[in-house]
Prior knowledge:
Elements: E1 2-3, E2 12-17, E3 23-24, E4 29-36, E5 41-48, E6 51-54, H1 61-64, H2 79-82, E7 88-91, E8 99-103, E9 108-118, E10 123-131
Parallel strand pairs: 1-3
Antiparallel strand pairs: 2-10, 3-9, 4-9, 4-10, 5-8, 5-9, 6-7
Amino acid sequence: MANYNDLLGGGGIVCIDENHGAVSAPSNRYFIAVQNTAAAGTFTVKGVGLFEYVDIDAASADDVVKYINPDTGLAFADEAEANGVAAGYFEVITGEKTVTLEIGAGQTVYGKFTEVDATDTNAALLYIGGHR
C-alpha cells in the first residue's frame, strides 16, 4: 500500500491507476475528492461518514457490526439487533469496511477518504486536503 506522507506535507494531487493498489492519504490528511480520469468504473474507498446500501437484515454477523444503527447511533451489536430492519443506507464505521463506488467517466466524488483503490482499468486524481 503506497503512502504519500513523505512526498506531500500539505495539499496536493496524487495520480493513481489499477496498478497502484490501495493508496493511503497522508496520516494527518484526507483525500477530499476522487476524480475519475478513465472510463466509468469501480473504486473502493475507506473514510469518514461513508454510507452504503445494505440489506442489513440479511447481513452476516461479521458484517452487521461494521454499520451504525440509526436508531441508537451506535454500532449494531449483533445479528439479532438487525433482525427485521429494512434494507437502506447505513453509515459504515470509520475504517472498518471498504465501500465500493461506481464513478462515471470524468465524474468527481467528494468526501473524507483515508484510502482509495482504483480497480478494473480505472485511473483517478486524488485531491489531498482537510486535516484529521
